[in-house]
Design the sequence.
């Protein structure tokens, strides 16, 4: 019978930030309205702008991100999960579309032990595998020994593109995208329990 879990623990686990480590931070509808853009990816819309309009829109986005980071709340089980990983010597990284400044604010606010943070200033956005590869290089681990955890389809697609095991955090929702995660968990507590199965 094939094993249901890999025989060894991962060398590193990479997490999405917004909606995964933290409760959802950003009100995307409000940001789009303030920036004066329609539906669709916000960063792509920003890249299509130029001159003063782009600078103004970018300033609005950064303000929203900074405000959200300053009042961010961790998802239940986050601190315990990170402690479980740390106790096993598993490295932790974060891959986020947010700005470096706002990611730093979140991790300092909650004093989270994160070894590597890859933000939109460092690499193209998920679903590109590139930010995940950047994190692996900085951590000195192989993609094959790394898990990618996230609550969005881009997290799972990026994990697949980087040939990593991916874990989708469902929050009890049913999956509305094609990419198949390696595992699915309802919350971060379930991921902690999964790691403890290795003991
Ligand atoms: Mg997310």
Sequence:
């Amino acid at each position: 019978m094939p094993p249901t879990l890999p025989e060894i623990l991962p060398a590193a686990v990479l997490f999405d930030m917004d909606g995964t480590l933290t409760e959802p931070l950003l009100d995307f509808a409000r940001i789009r309205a303030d920036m004066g853009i329609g539906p669709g990816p916000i960063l792509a819309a920003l890249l299509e702008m130029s001159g003063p309009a782009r600078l103004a829109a970018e300033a609005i986005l950064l303000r929203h991100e900074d405000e959200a980071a300053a009042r961010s709340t961790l998802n239940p089980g986050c601190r315990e999960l990170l402690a479980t990983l740390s106790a096993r010597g598993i490295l932790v990284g974060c891959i986020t579309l947010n700005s470096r400044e706002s990611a730093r604010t979140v991790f300092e606010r909650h004093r989270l032990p994160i070894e590597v943070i890859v933000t939109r200033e460092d690499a193209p956005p998920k679903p590109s595998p590139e930010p995940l590869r950047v994190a692996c290089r900085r951590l000195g681990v192989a993609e094959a020994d790394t898990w990618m955890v996230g609550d969005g389809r881009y997290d799972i697609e990026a994990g697949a593109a980087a040939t990593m095991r991916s874990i989708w955090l469902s929050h009890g929702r049913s999956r509305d995208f094609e990419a198949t995660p390696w595992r699915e968990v309802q919350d971060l507590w379930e991921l902690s329990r999964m790691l403890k199965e290795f003991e």
